[in-house]
Amino acid sequence: QVQLVESGGGLVEAGGSLRLSCVASGRAISLYNIGWFRQAPGKEREFVAAVSKSGSATASVDSVKGRFTISRDNAKNTVFLQMNSLKPEDTAVYYCAAQPRLYSTSYASSASAYDYWGQGTQVTVSS
Is the Cα torsion angle 120, 50, 60, 55 positive or negative in sign? Predict the structure, then answer.
């Protein structure tokens, strides 16, 4: 079983940048497709981005395209979410999640497809 820990969140002004990290322990992160999700107060959890085990395939929600980039370094057991040009509406708790099955764009954005979740890291963007 893999354990996931997110870090890198914080308070930033609109237009600023943050880089989130998702570090795996217990098993190699290379065994898992990884997704980033976020949840704002009073809202449902929302898909942000996903990356396949090798990093060859990625997906992201339209609202972050051109601003957020997902990447991974399997040698460091870490997946990153680089967030640029942040907006107040990006404010949320960000979670990473892992699933070991074949990567598919049809379910990479579905929270129910993921087996393991981190505890989340808070991102707050001030206007």
Answer: positive
